[in-house]
């Protein structure tokens, strides 16, 4: 039997407890049986294990194999420079591994944040006396006392209550505090039973006692913690793409290495020369600079996003945001301001806007009564920050409205209270004033108005007849149609012995009606429209009532049809997985009164439908959904530490429009990675062709492996990073999300990099190599020694030509279809910094003794540099013609040509 359905005495008996609590002996025995009242940690992979993974993935294993081959070659045939090559490759692996470990390292702070939410001390009854004990010593059957401001230490059943109200937002998502009572409840879910207090929630007002029935991981709080820890980490689209790209390139590199080693062997090449050739093919095909460049590009994007109030905790989430197809969004505080305000008032017999209240003498008297009612009849936590009351936004708004009318110094002294009751749906406060005791009542109109027989109007206090009730109901309907939450206020004077003792709420005078609104953030409607333009679906998931959610959804433009699908938590609980997925096909759908596992269930259902899901949240109850989503987004201002620790992105301003800005940056990141991927892969062809020519045509090797690494990990890094810093394209938010199956490495990208730009670069590199080698008197068929000055100068010229062509390629890769001369391409300062660095590095290699020694180079004359220029201009002209043709074809098809 559920404990919430039992009477107080039966609930205590079911736990073998009493109103005076357990004995100390029995509590000690139960502590041994049930364990301490704390959230246990689920074992995570050790740091060393996680570090080791960065050096053993498929991409790294290929480089390890190349390093082992190079070091073996140095052992069996020393003096060929293979040892230095092996050490260089190991250095590449170590740098990439450490960089990736820093990127992937995630400090697991969710459990620490969960523990901080549980109070360290609690008042517990043992042997019939109240005593202070550590919260982790609580056991089932303990009776605890709770007061305003206390955190609930475990799951408890209320046994007595006086005006007890609890803020359950961190567990249930409800924005309004809930009144708690000792009476049995037929509510099935412990999250919404009014006689249960859940661990991690906070007492807003009142006081009471409760018996503990669940501790530690058996609490709802612990269950959420377990969901948070056991939910698998979602792999971002970019992570999947990098893994796919790495495996594809590694397999290609190894396959070509083995193929051409076999060809070399068939042609009779010496074993060690053939091995050098195979290693060169592998190293030339593996873009060693890709991993650090991707990481740095993502890090730079996080800095741009931070300036737009989105703090990124996990780097891959930057690009994952750009792939989002659905945003599952909270209402309170994200779409709305979480700052309720009085919008309309029915006072003195008529409906008025809150900023245009009547000023006639009778109206002022009615307003005074209504203001006193609103100012005194509230439940606010007693703490004050900066002179402002803190607590439920609705209560704060009412207190502020009433205080403005009657003056804060004129408020009356509260001497008694009839607390809010779920059946009565109203509360009353008895106050002492200079006119005697008075009762003020506040609550739902349908429960307060039947208690009234008179009302304050412009003509004074009159009978509440049928005609006046009709006018009142019309005003009430007008306010509810506007999406306002309406409260009725009434009052009466009390004479000693005639109603005070009985706390009678009958015979009241209706003071008026107040309509409150939690206004949407002003930027939200435009952000919702941008999402629609970008093909992103927004689904509201809230713990609030469905009517409130629907009213806000209509106001911000999220719902435009007459009959959207509104699914409650109870309905969702009865749905099968198939039914939920079918329900999500609705064009407009909202979810209201959902629990923690239900939010995660919605996310998983969307993911099964092939969606890339971003989820917002601020409470403990949101943590599992935040973790399992493709992108978890926590609120920075109102969010709990648990939500922030489980999220990938934290909004510093809690604003939905910031999510849309972050999506724009994320889409730009994907586009930019494609740009520098094209740039990096283009240089693979002039690195591979020399080795193919070496084995097929028996010419001197035009480019050494060390020189390949100089390009991949030296001259190419900063220019590639400059492409990663390009600003978002103006049309990026007018395109639909890219298909989930769309890959970074497309056939079009490969064709442009390998079969177009790369061929121009290879032609330039091989031509200048033969030019310099021929100037030294080389004849076909000769194989100069590895230290021959003319040969070293020729390989240096080949390297310099690749770098020079890459400078031109940098401008061509800034946009796939726009001309490199287009003014639409905004100025990018990092572009020029990249070119300057690239130039400095090649000059260091070519013209300094240290650079010559490290990379096997010799200084060049001016002629080889000038020889490269026609090739660079030819590549630029060819690519500009290609872009012109693509733009023309897009215009004919009705597109923008921005691709």
Structural class comes to alpha+beta
What is the count of helical runs?
Answer: 32
- What is the end-to-end distance? 63 Å
And the CATH topology of the largest domain? Calcium-transporting ATPase, transmembrane domain
Helix content: 40-55%
Total E-strand runs: 26
Round the Cα radius of gyration to an integer and report it.
36 Å
Segments where pLDDT lies below 50 for 5+ residues?
106-119, 379-388, 497-502
CATH architectural type of the largest domain:
Up-down Bundle
List the domain count as a whole number.
Answer: 4
CATH class of the largest domain: Mainly Alpha
- The pLDDT mean sits at 81
Overall, the morphology is: elongated
Membrane topology: Multi-pass membrane protein
GO molecular function, one term: ATP hydrolysis activity
Organism: Thauera propionica
Pfam families: Cation_ATPase, Cation_ATPase_C, Cation_ATPase_N, E1-E2_ATPase, Hydrolase_3
């Amino acid at each position: 039997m559920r404990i919430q359905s039992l009477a107080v005495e039966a609930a205590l008996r079911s736990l073998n407890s009493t109103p005076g609590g357990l004995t100390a002996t029995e509590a000690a025995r139960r502590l041994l049986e049930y364990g301490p009242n704390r959230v246990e940690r689920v074992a995570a992979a050790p740091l060393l294990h996680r570090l080791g993974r960065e050096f053993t993935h498929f991409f790294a294993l290929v480089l390890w194999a190349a390093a082992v081959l190079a070091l073996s070659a140095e052992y069996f045939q020393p003096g060929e420079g293979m040892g230095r090559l092996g050490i260089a490759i190991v250095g590449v692996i170590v740098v990439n591994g450490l960089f990736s470990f820093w990127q992937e390292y995630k400090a697991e702070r969710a459990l620490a944040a969960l523990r901080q939410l549980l109070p360290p001390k609690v008042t517990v009854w043992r042997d019939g006396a109240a005593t202070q004990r550590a919260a982790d010593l609580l056991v089932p059957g303990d009776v605890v006392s709770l007061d305003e401001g206390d955190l609930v230490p475990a799951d408890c059943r209320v046994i007595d209550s006086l005006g007890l109200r609890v803020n359950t937002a961190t567990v249930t998502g409800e924005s309004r505090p809930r009144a708690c009572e000792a009476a049995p409840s037929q509510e099935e879910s412990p999250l919404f039973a009014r006689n249960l207090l859940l661990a991690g929630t906070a007492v807003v007002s009142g006081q009471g006692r409760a018996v503990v029935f669940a501790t530690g991981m058996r609490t709802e709080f612990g269950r959420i913690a377990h969901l948070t820890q056991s939910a698998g980490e979602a792999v971002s689209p970019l992570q999947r793409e990098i893994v796919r790209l790495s495996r594809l390139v590694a397999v290609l590199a190894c396959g070509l290495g083995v193929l051409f080693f076999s060809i070399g062997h068939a042609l009779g090449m010496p074993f060690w020369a053939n091995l050098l050739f195979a290693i060169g093919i592998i190293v030339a095909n593996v873009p060693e600079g890709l991993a650090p460049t991707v990481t740095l590009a993502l890090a730079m994007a996080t800095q741009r996003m931070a300036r737009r109030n989105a703090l990124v905790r996990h780097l891959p989430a930057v690009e994952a945001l750009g792939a989002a197809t659905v945003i599952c969004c909270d209402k309170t505080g994200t779409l709305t301001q979480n700052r309720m305000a009085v919008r309309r008032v029915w006072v003195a017999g008529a409906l008025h806007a809150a900023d245009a209240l009547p000023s006639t003498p009778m109206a002022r008297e009615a307003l005074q009564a209504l203001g006193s009612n609103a100012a005194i009849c509230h439940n606010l936590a007693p703490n004050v920050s900066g002179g402002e009351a803190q607590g439920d936004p609705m209560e704060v708004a009412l207190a502020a409205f009433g205080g403005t009318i009657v003056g804060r110094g004129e408020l009356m002294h509260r001497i008694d209270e009839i607390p809010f009751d779920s059946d009565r749906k109203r509360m009353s406060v008895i106050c002492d004033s200079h006119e005697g005791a008075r009762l003020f009542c506040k609550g739902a109109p349908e429960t307060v108005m039947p208690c009234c027989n008179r009302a304050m109007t412009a003509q004074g206090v009159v009978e509440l007849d049928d005609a006046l009730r009709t006018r009142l109901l019309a005003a009430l309907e007008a306010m509810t149609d506007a999406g306002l939450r309406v409260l009725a206020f009434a009052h009466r004077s009390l004479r000693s012995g005639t109603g005070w003792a009985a706390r009678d709420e009958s015979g009241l005078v209706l003071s008026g009606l107040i309509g409150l609104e939690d206004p949407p953030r002003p930027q939200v409607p435009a952000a919702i429209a941008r999402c629609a333009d970008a093909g992103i679906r927004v689904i509201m998931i809230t713990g609030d009532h469905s009517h409130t959610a629907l009213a806000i959804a209509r106001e911000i433009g999220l719902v435009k049809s007459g009959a959207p699908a509104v699914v409650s938590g109870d309905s969702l609980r009865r749905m099968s997985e198939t039914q939920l997925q079918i329900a999500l096909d609705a064009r407009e759908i909202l979810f209201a009164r959902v629990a923690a596992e239900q939010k995660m269930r919605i996310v998983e259902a969307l993911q099964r439908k092939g969606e890339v899901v971003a989820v917002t949240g601020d409470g403990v109850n949101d943590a599992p959904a935040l973790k399992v989503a493709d992108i978890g987004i926590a609120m920075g201002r109102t969010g709990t530490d648990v939500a922030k620790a489980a999220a990938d992105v934290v909004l510093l301003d809690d604003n939905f429009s910031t999510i849309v800005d972050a999506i724009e940056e994320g889409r730009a990141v994907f586009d930019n990675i494609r740009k520098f991927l094209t740039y990096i892969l283009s240089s693979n062809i002039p690195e591979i062709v020399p080795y193919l020519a070496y084995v097929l045509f028996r010419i001197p090797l035009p480019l050494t492996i060390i020189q390949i690494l100089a390009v991949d990990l030296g001259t190419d890094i900063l220019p590639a990073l400059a492409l990663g810093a390009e600003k978002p394209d103006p049309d990026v938010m007018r395109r639909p999300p890219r298909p989930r199956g769309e890959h970074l490495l497309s056939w079009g990208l490969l064709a442009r990099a390998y079969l177009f730009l790369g061929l121009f670069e290879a032609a330039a590199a091989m031509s200048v190599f033969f030019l310099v080698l021929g100037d030294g008197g080389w004849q076909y068929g000769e194989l100069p020694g590895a230290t021959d000055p003319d040969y070293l100068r020729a390989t240096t010229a080949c390297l310099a030509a690749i770098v020079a062509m890459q400078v031109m390629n940098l401008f061509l890769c800034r946009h796939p279809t726009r001309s490199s001369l287009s003014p639409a391409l905004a100025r990018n300062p990092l572009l020029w910094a990249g070119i300057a660095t690239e130039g400095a590095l090649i000059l260091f290699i070519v013209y300094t003794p240290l650079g010559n020694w490290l990379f096997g180079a010799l200084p060049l004359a001016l002629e080889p540099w000038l020889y490269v220029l026609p090739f660079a201009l030819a590549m630029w002209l060819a690519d500009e013609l290609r872009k012109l043709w693509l733009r023309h074809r897009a215009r004919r098809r009705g597109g923008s040509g921005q691709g």
